[in-house]
Design goal:
alpha+beta, 9 helices, about 25% strand
Length: about 325
């Protein structure tokens, strides 16, 4: 197994709807889930006749990716582990508990220190927090079918200078990685997320070295817990065993089918619930590939339930 890392330097704002399943235009999030990245890459692959090959790479484990997670300058950030550690010395500090709850990402350089600190009375939150940009509101006007035209608002994330998102890729074949790199570069030109027709979601790709500390975490399979670095879902046969004695959050995954050949009109994918990044389980799992198409569709619509893990020791 080999690893590669790609930084996405966004040249425009990014609209990525929250995974809560509600209305998404006027709200959004900063990161991009692994299954969303896979779906976007499939759209690019379909344009150049490589969709079957790309799906095969992910289905057989030749390619595996993380969520697109934040970075600030040279610092990479990981999801905050979803864990419960009873600490009576901190239970009475409501302010600290609130700050810890609002913390979403942990710097890679402080990750092991953060885990050790969970059992300590003091936590240095200033060292852990990061500022990556801000959510802004863009006003657009809907003209088609509206007389008079109606304004509407789109929430979009604008990254601060030196900040963006990064993807970790595990690969087994150079040919597969070349395909991934080409499709990712094309995706940067097309855009990812919502309102691409308005120019949102465009980025430039920069390949960067994978820090040795990050590879150590990814390969730490004997660890006490295995933390998801992206959205994933075990197959039914392994679900109960995997979740037993684990800590996890479930996220709803839906969205529209972006295919010109699937059906005459734009249709929604069947919704599915997946494990969120940061979920900590007692062991790793392979995960499944899920066809979310309906009987009337012209082709399968795949949702990738596989991602990378990082070892977590308390």
């Amino acid at each position: 197994m080999e690893y590669s890392l790609y930084k996405l330097n966004f040249t425009t704002a990014l609209h990525m709807g929250k995974h809560s399943g509600g209305a998404s235009l006027d709200d959004g999030q900063m990161t991009i889930h692994a299954d969303t990245l896979f779906s976007a890459l499939c759209c690019e692959a379909a344009r150049v006749g490589q969709i079957d090959q790309l799906v095969k790479y992910f289905a057989d484990g030749t390619l595996t990716i993380s969520d697109a997670l934040p970075y600030a300058e040279e610092e990479l950030f990981l999801p905050k582990p979803i864990l419960f550690v009873g600490n009576k010395k901190r239970e009475g500090d409501a302010s600290l508990k609130k700050k810890l709850k609002s913390l979403e990402f942990i710097p890679l350089s402080s990750f092991r220190e953060y885990l050790k600190g969970l059992n300590q009375p003091e936590v240095n939150l200033d060292k852990l927090s990061g500022i990556f940009g801000h959510l802004t509101t863009i006003t657009r006007v809907a003209i088609k079918g509206n007389n008079p035209p109606l304004p509407y608002h789109v929430a979009a994330w604008k990254f601060a200078s030196g900040c963006g998102l990064y993807i970790i890729v595990r690969f087994e074949q150079d040919e597969a990685l070349d395909t991934f790199e080409t499709l990712l570069a094309n995706l940067g030109l097309s855009g990812i997320g919502g309102k691409q027709s308005s120019g949102l979601g465009k980025f430039k790709v920069q390949q960067s070295p994978v820090p040795a500390e990050l590879i150590e975490l990814i390969e730490e399979e004997p660890a006490e817990y295995q933390m998801l670095l992206g959205t994933a879902l075990p197959v039914d046969a392994e679900l109960d065993k995997i979740l037993q004695n684990g800590w996890y959050t479930v996220v709803r995954r839906g969205g529209f089918i972006r295919s010109e050949n699937y059906a005459p009109g734009q249709l929604k994918k069947r919704s599915i619930y997946m494990l969120a990044p940061g979920s900590c389980l007692p062991s790793r799992f392979k995960g499944g590939m899920y066809d979310l198409s309906d009987n009337g569709g012209a082709h399968p619509v795949w949702r990738c339930g596989r991602t990378l893990f990082a070892g977590v020791n308390l």
